[in-house]
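Tip: read the tokens left to right.
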């Protein structure tokens, strides 16, 4: 594939990358489709594996070998630029020598609650989550434990924030995530027969005692203030994680991950498969290559 050399900080494509990383999904391609920015060879490979359209690839000069075997289309636009020029556009403290503009998946309600779903729905509702690292971790756990999708309410950080994308380790490319209003969220879930559970610290049912093998949506609130009172009041019940240690609450991403694991455990126990091991599903290793 041809590689074009760029030397100017004012290059239009480089400006697009800078804006896409700073303001996720605000940048558009020539056809008006939203663009997101990603950084690093592993995220580029994950995006390609997920079948996403790559709009443009940016390489630090001398790093062309990173494209070997990646499988980019022959007509892909690839720009090579000095390392300091690429570093001026990306957001990481220790920038990687490759970045790209991609077209995110076009998720719909059908992907989350569509008639093709064979199992009871498992959904996470994010209500005012602000830390992109937490959001990315929740996306990764959602994929690991078989959730059908994420519903992002107003006030929640974008899933395409560069830190969220990195923390998701590529799950953001595969897990359906919809930005919806509170009314639409509750109406759609109730129409689909999904029980909505808010997370709470006190006066709530223990997660291992709640029925999460049935269709359920879990509300995860703001890191500091939790689930807003008006949303908690609209839920069908409250759920908590019993902690024997001397802590009042868990990190939002940790809490979501524990509850998703519990839902996955209950579902595996109620629908055992000859392909599964131990608790009913393959092991997940720790760590990340991203």
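Filled-in amino acids:
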């Amino acid at each position: 594939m041809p590689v074009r050399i760029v030397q100017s900080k004012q290059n239009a494509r480089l400006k697009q990358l800078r804006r896409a990383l700073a303001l996720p999904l605000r940048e558009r391609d020539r056809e008006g489709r939203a663009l997101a920015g990603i950084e690093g060879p592993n995220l580029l490979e994950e995006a390609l594996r997920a079948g996403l359209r790559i709009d443009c690839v940016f390489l630090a000069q001398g790093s062309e070998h990173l494209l070997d075997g990646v499988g980019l289309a022959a007509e892909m636009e690839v720009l090579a630029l000095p390392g300091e020029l690429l570093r001026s556009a990306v957001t990481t403290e220790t920038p990687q020598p490759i970045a790209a503009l991609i077209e995110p998946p076009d998720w719909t309600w059908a992907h989350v609650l569509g008639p093709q779903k064979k199992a009871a729905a498992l959904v996470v509702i994010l209500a005012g989550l602000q830390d992109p690292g937490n959001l990315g971790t929740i996306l990764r756990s959602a994929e690991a434990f078989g959730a059908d999708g994420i519903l992002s309410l107003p006030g929640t950080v974008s899933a395409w924030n560069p830190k969220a994308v990195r923390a998701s380790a590529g799950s953001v490319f595969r897990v359906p995530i919809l930005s919806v209003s509170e009314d639409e969220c509750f109406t759609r879930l109730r129409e689909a027969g999904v029980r909505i559970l808010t997370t709470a610290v006190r006066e709530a049912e223990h997660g291992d005692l709640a029925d999460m093998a049935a269709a359920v949506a879990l509300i995860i609130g703001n890191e500091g203030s939790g689930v807003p009172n008006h949303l908690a009041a609209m839920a069908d019940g409250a759920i908590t994680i019993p902690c024997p240690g001397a802590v009042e609450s868990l990190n939002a991403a940790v809490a979501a991950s524990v509850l998703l694991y519990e839902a996955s455990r209950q579902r595996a126990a109620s629908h055992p498969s000859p392909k599964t091991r131990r608790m009913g599903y393959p092991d997940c290793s720790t760590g990340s290559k991203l």
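The chain has two domains: 3-103, 109-270. The longest strand covers residues 53-60.
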